[in-house]
Amino acid sequence: MRVVIDYERCTGNGRCYALFPDLFGDDESGYGQVIGDGSIGDDQLDEARSAVVACPEDAVAIEGE
Ligand code: SF4
To answer: Is 40 in the pocket of ligand 1 (CB under 6 A)?
Structure first.
């Protein structure tokens, strides 16, 4: 499974990396970035689901769930 960000939707409000720094960072302009290739284990799924809900732009998704 992977978390992904639709970079065309992201407005850089920072909720994902402020709330879930294990899964997301930011680029030099403050836009969210997945960490590494976004791969997550079962133990991170709840956190990733919360990040999907937390993003006000519907930019975060989970692939392969
Ligand atoms: S919460 Fe959504 S809109 Fe905000 S930085 Fe993260 S991906 Fe972008």
So the answer is: no
